[in-house]
Design a protein that fits this description.
The protein is an alpha/beta fold. It contains seven helices and twelve strands. One of its GO terms (molecular function) is aminopeptidase activity.
């Protein structure tokens, strides 16, 4: 049995503001250590529960945050960018399940450090379904027939996961007070919780269905600023809604939609606000 793990940073316990998740700021190395420890709790449990292969994809920012020398020695780590499938790079139909650790809630929703890819995105949709990183990544996993078994993060992230993925196991390592404050478990307690929930998720894996994406999906992104929409609209095949910062793209499948989203958000980040 193979397990795929995507690890973001904002949903890790104790990480509550940019000082922990920005590599230029003073709490970042602390954040790296706690992030790596949380990943290890799930990795080690997966091996104990019979997994023969665990692939971990570093999925935060420049995607080089996990401390490889501290990971379980049998782990395979995908590190760095640019990656064609970003947060779900390396995921394919050979995996029995996926786990999303350190995840956060989508933009415009309550939660610690909530956002969707970039801070210029207000809302993102696949057809009529609002998605953040969690939902979009789950759709890509579903395209390959892989169910998302475990999602770990704050309470808002857990609620978002449960709304999208029936039967998913969630691990709440902190409860949001505001976007930059939370009631957090200590790393020791979050580790205990993650081990329990990982064991539970693997035991019930056959009860969770992949989140099947729609055929020929329409990707729609609502940006915060019209200039961001103008930049995103430079990608061929997109349409911009006149008078609103909303850009859409008709994709042939969810993977094409995902890569279109990566291009559109990268372009949007070129917008200057002064």
């Amino acid at each position: 049995m193979k397990l795929y793990i995507s690890v973001d940073m904002e949903g890790i316990t104790g990480l509550i503001d940019s000082t922990f998740v920005d590599s230029n700021k003073y709490n970042y190395t602390r954040g790296q250590r706690i992030m790596t420890a949380e990943a290890n709790h799930v990795i080690e449990t997966a091996f104990w529960e019979g997994c023969k292969e665990v692939v971990v994809n570093d999925s935060h920012s420049k995607m080089n945050n996990l401390i490889i020398e501290e990971l379980h020695p049998e782990t395979q780590l995908i590190s760095g960018d640019v990656k064609p499938l970003s947060m779900v790079q390396g995921l394919d139909s050979s995996f029995a399940g996926a786990a999303f650790l350190g995840y956060h809630s989508r933009a415009a929703r309550k939660g610690v450090l909530s956002h969707t890819m970039i801070f210029g995105v207000r809302n993102m949709y696949i057809n009529d379904t609002a998605v953040g990183e969690l939902g979009f990544n789950a759709f890509v996993a579903g395209y390959y027939g892989v169910p998302v078994l475990l999602v770990a993060g704050d309470d808002e992230t857990a609620a978002e996961a449960e709304e999208l993925i029936p039967g998913v196991t969630t691990a709440i390592v902190k409860k949001a007070i505001s976007r930059t404050s939370a009631l957090c478990l200590t790393p020791e307690k979050s580790g205990q919780l993650l081990r329990e929930k990982a064991k539970e998720a693997l035991a019930s894996r056959l009860k969770v269905k992949p989140l099947t994406p729609p055929d020929n999906p329409v990707l729609t992104i609502e940006f915060a600023n019209y200039g961001q929409a103008e930049w995103a609209h430079l990608m061929p095949g997109t349409e911009i809604e006149q008078g609103a910062p909303i850009v859409s793209f008709q994709a042939k499948n969810i993977v094409e939609a995902y890569q279109a989203m990566l291009v559109m958000t990268e372009l949007a980040m070129r917008t200057s606000f002064c």
